[in-house]
Specification:
The chain has 391 residues and is an alpha/beta fold. It has three domains: 222 residues, Alpha-lytic protease prodomain-like, CATH 1.20.1510.10; 80 residues, Cation efflux protein, cytoplasmic domain (Alpha-Beta Plaits, 2-Layer Sandwich), CATH 3.30.70.1350; 84 residues, Cation efflux protein, cytoplasmic domain (Alpha-Beta Plaits, 2-Layer Sandwich), CATH 3.30.70.1350. It is elongated, with a radius of gyration of 29 Å.
């Protein structure tokens, strides 16, 4: 249904990287979610009323909260699609994350309310009236939620939306909780064992867990999470495909919402190269990154010596020696400045964030390594923390 509607209602539906197309996908899925969840709420609330089951009623209100979540998602996509303005030069893309956070809060509140009601039901259990109509409604509810999980995950992957992926996970957990409610209904009828309140607690716990996961997935990008290692590797591969560039370092990826990235990095280039030619190459690399990754890109040129045998030999030696500390540590911006009493080895060491040693410890160890070299060398070291690219 969603595929048919997207082809009918969304112009250029096959271009999900377009911000406007992406926004329309989010609004469409939100509208479908509201409609289906309201239908499920009405059906399950009716079934819960005629049977007197707190578990079925809890499951019904869970669907109602999902309808509210879909409404918040629509608002989030609408606001996120606004153009940049003087107060928000990078756009409003993070509104999608905020809407996802609001959805997670609603889910958590509903989970706590249902948990309290279920505990009350355990303390004062009431008989449940069995109805095959209720069984059919619950089966339809399971099928409906599985379908919602499928299309939300498919569209979420297509447009790279954390909010929609969270909705898909929530729908899958809802189908599991509804299955538990159905099992409790059948057990009460065929075995005369009333576990309605306990299943209500289980459903509430599923809801709380889904709310926690949704909150985590939206809070991380708001706080500023590390970029996807595959993205880092692809950016590095793209930049290094331009011959004058020797290596890159100090890459920073800012996420201003899905499809709104800013990438900055330093590129090492030969110090004896033609400045205008290299500047033209850097401009071309920036343009390539913008077109390939749909981002803003800024590259800083770092000139390095490439034709001095002594410098190249010492740089190679330092690249090997620093890996004694950790094999992932690399050297960049290497220079040698010779004075009357000693030679300064000036360089930065790039170290992944997950290396447990502190920057001060790493710097001290590098300085000790340099002190052991033959000759009168002094280390001037800066420690940079870097994203780890996917191997």
């Amino acid at each position: 249904m969603v595929t048919f509607l997207s082809r009918w209602l969304i112009r250029d539906y096959d271009r999900p990287e377009d911000p406007e197309v992406r926004r329309k996908y989010g609004v469409l899925c939100g509208c479908v979610g509201i409609g289906l969840n309201i239908l499920l709420f009405l059906a399950k609330f009716f079934a819960g009323t005629i049977s007197g089951s707190i578990a079925i009623t809890a499951d019904a209100f869970n669907n109602l909260s999902d309808a509210g979540s879909s409404l918040v998602t629509i608002v989030g996509f609408k606001l996120a699609g606004q153009k940049p303005d003087p107060s928000h030069p990078f756009g409003h893309g993070r509104m999608e994350y905020l809407s996802g956070l609001a959805v997670s809060v609603l889910i958590l509140l509903m989970g706590f309310e249902l948990l309290q009601s279920s505990v009350d039901k355990i303390r004062a259990p009431e008989p449940i009236e069995f109805s095959w109509l209720s069984v059919v409604i619950l089966l339809l509810g399971i099928a409906g939620k599985l379908y919602m999980s499928y299309y939300n995950r498919a569209v979420g992957n297509k447009i790279n939306s954390a909010a929609m992926k969270a909705t898909a996970a929530d729908s899958l957990s809802d189908s599991i909780s509804t299955t538990a409610v159905l099992a409790a209904t059948l057990i009460a009828h065929f075995f005369s064992v009333n576990i309605d309140g306990w299943v209500g607690v289980a459903v509430a716990c599923f809801i709380l867990y889904a709310g926690y996961n949704a909150a985590r997935d939206t809070v991380d990008p708001l706080l500023g999470q590390a970029p996807d290692p595959e993205l880092v590797a692809e950016v590095e591969k793209t930049v290094l495909s331009f011959p004058p560039i020797q290596s890159i370092h100090d890459m920073i990826v800012h996420d201003y919402g899905p499809g709104r990235l800013m990438i900055s990095l330093h590129a090492e280039v030969p110090a004896d190269g033609d400045l205008l030619e290299m500047h033209d190459t850097i401009d071309l690399v920036e343009q390539t990154l913008r077109e390939k990754f749909h981002c803003d890109a800024v590259i800083h040129m770092d000139p390095i010596v490439t034709n001095d045998e002594q410098v190249l030999k010492m740089r190679g030696k330092m690249c090997q020696l620093v890996q004694v500390i950790d094999k992932r540590i690399t050297v960049h911006d290497f220079r040698m400045v010779t004075g009357p009493t000693h030679t300064n080895l000036i360089f930065d060491v790039a170290c992944p964030f997950d290396v447990k040693q502190t920057d001060a410890d790493i710097k001290r160890q590098v300085e000790e390594i340099v002190d052991l070299l033959d000759g009168n060398y002094n280390a001037v070291v800066t420690v940079d923390r870097i994203y780890a690219a996917k191997n």
